[in-house]
Structure formats: C-alpha cells, structure tokens
Amino acid sequence: MRQLFCAPQTCVITNSCAKRGAGFRAEGFVKRSVIYSIDAKDRIVDVDKAWARFAEDNGGNPDPSAVIGHCLWDFIVDEGNRNLYRCMVQAVRERVSPLHIPFRCDSPAVERHMTMTIAPGSLGEIAFICTLHYSFDRAPRPTGGIRSEAATIVECDGCHRLWTKRGWRNCWDIITAGELTIDDRPINVLHTRCAACSPQRLPVVG
Ligand SMILES: [Zn+2]
Question: Most CB atoms within 10 A, among 4, 69, 75, 150?
Fold first, then answer.
C-alpha cells in the first residue's frame, strides 16, 4: 500500500518512458507532478488525476473514493517511513512553511530520483507534491526494499526527535541539513526517551 502514497505515483511517467528504451532517463522539461492532500486530521481529502493513473498502472483501484476519507498513515506500512513522514508533517504544520525533500521511491525494476514538497494550508491541511526528475533501469529488487538493508533511526517516544551525531534534533533540521537520506529502504525504529522526556522509564540515549 505504501506505493500509493510515497510518491511513486509518477510511475505513470516511468511507464511511458519504459517504452523508449532502457537505461538513464532524464525527465528534463517534461516534469510531471502528482499531488494529493490531507486535512488537519491526516485524512486524505484529494488526489489528482496523475495519482489515479498511477494506481491503475500498478494494479490498484484508481477510484479516488477507495482512499479519500481514509487516514494517510494506513497506507504507509513500514513503521520507520511512517514515523518519518508523520514527523515531517508535524514540523510543516508547526512552522507553516513548506519542506522540500529529495528522495528515492523505486519500483522493482526502476530507480527513481524525486523531490517531494510538503506544503501547509492555513487550517492544518497538507499538500504533497511529488515530482520525478530522472530514473534508471535496474535489475529487479523487491518492492519496498530489502529488510537486511534497512536504515535505522533512534526516536524519542516523548518529543519524537531523532538521535544524531549532533544530539537530539527534530526531523526538519535533519532533513534540511541534508543529513537524512530518504530512499526506498525500510527503516528500523529504535524507541527510547531523550533526557528531556522521561529518563526513568526507558534507557536514555544522549
Ligand atoms: Zn524526547
């Protein structure tokens, strides 16, 4: 289900490119974006036509009513990725400022290099604008990445900051500093509490 909302929606672009031959594909001036949005309670309220094409191309239900009204997080199975996206959405709402993220979102035989803009509305709504920039063909790999190649993050269950070499920081700072790569790997989450939260309940890091 993650494939529905992690922005591989631009599979619709890849599918058309695939007919032009293998290898590198620069999207250049024909960038196309897929847009979907959630309300202040994280319910999906809108998906655009490109999303519907993606769903159809990937064997899913292209009818927006299959997803509209449902919680976005229900569609992101991997816990680490889900936590990360929740953190980013929370940060965007708090700062009322858009966040631009380079990320990878691959399908089994295509490596896609994309950007996502997470943009806030005035009532807590969030729009996700996902754009494919270029892609490579590759030997098929499992959708959703390989568990043994998973990245690991350490998250405070109290404040949801992440542990880094520079201490506990929120995901906004980490991502805008380019210190966290979002690719198609699963993410393992190690749960703990930072010293500022509840040092008695769980092992403390930092
Ligand atoms: Zn904390």
Answer: 4
